[in-house]
Amino acid sequence: EVQLVESGGGLVQPGGSLRVSCAASGFTFSSYWMSWVRQAPGKGLEWVANIKEDGSEKNYVDTVKGRFTISRDNAKNSLYLQMNSLRAEDTAVYYCARERPKGAVYLDHWGQGTLVTVSS
Amino acid sequence: DIQMTQSPSTLSASVGDRVTITCRASQSISSWLAWYQHKPGKAPNLLISDASSLESGVPSRFSGSGSGTEFTLTISSLQPDDFATYYCQHYGTFGQGTKVEIK
């Protein structure tokens, strides 16, 4: 069974940093692109970033470029999102998701999410 | 950048109703479109990919159609478990969502 479990969320001050993680199991992690998607309170889903199977290619939504870094450790079956220079508008539940191997960012498995709150 | 626009934003319906949600792309996206169901506190669930391919395990009352710039998600007979928010998605862009509420 595919499982994705996020961790590392919490309260951080504006301008601060936080790293959220996603532990994957039940599939060959190193064979899939992976994505981060977020949902701010009362808002819709927003795709944040994705990373190629071997980590050689990464893409970001414009609003986080230069502040967030996606990475992965295939030996540990883990996905990460390093978030720097955090703003109030980054407050959201952050989901990791597996991409269907078709290159169309179809997200066929999701974790339950981890809440990141940016507030003083 | 391609924009995805859903309508309506909210839809009130009763159990047994036929429900249709529309998603429009700002330019042609062929059939590169997915639909998700999202319930509060739960992980989103992929319902349909490639505009009309039903995912394994998804009830057959769900169907998708369209290509180019206009797409629809139809629920043929709304069930109690279907009250949720639905999103269309093209690559890194989601629609704003359609909340299906109990009438």
Descriptive notes:
The complex is a heterodimer of chains A (120) and B (103). Chain A has no helices and eleven strands. Chain A has 120 residues and is mainly beta. In chain A, strands 2, 4, 5, 6, 9, 10 and 11 form a seven-stranded mixed sheet that branches. In chain A, strands 1-3-8-7 form a four-stranded antiparallel sheet, with no helix packed on it. Chain A starts with a strand and ends with a strand. Chain B is an all-beta fold. Chain B has no helices and eleven strands. In chain B, the strands form two sheets. In chain B, strands 2, 4, 5, 6, 9, 10 and 11 form a seven-stranded mixed sheet that branches. In chain B, a hairpin with a 3-residue loop joins strand 5 and strand 6. In chain B, 34% of the residues are buried. At the A-B interface, strand 5 and strand 10 of A face strand 4, strand 5, strand 9 and strand 10 of B.
Précis, in short:
By secondary structure, chain A is mainly β. Chain A is built from no helices and eleven strands.
What does the largest sheet of chain B look like? 7 strands, mixed
Fraction of residues in H or I helices of chain A = under 10%
Spans of chain B of at least 5 consecutive residues whose pLDDT stays below 50 are none
- Put simply, the count of helices of chain A is 0
Beta-strand fraction estimate of chain B: over 45%
Report the structural category of chain B. mainly beta
Query: Largest interface, by Cβ-Cβ below 8 angstroms: which chains and how many residues each?
Result: A-B, 21 and 22 residues
Structure annotation, total helices of chain B: 0
Give me the secondary-structure category of chain A: mainly beta
> How many distinct beta strands of chain B?
11
Roughly how many Å is the radius of gyration of chain B? Answer: 13 Å
Shape of chain B, please?
Answer: globular
The biggest beta sheet of chain A reads: 7 strands, mixed
Low-confidence stretches of chain A: none
Distance between the termini of chain A: 40 Å
Number of strands of chain A: 11
The SSE order of chain A reads EEEEEEEEEEE
User: Considering DSSP H and I runs of 4 or more, what fraction of the residues of chain B is helical?
Assistant: under 10%
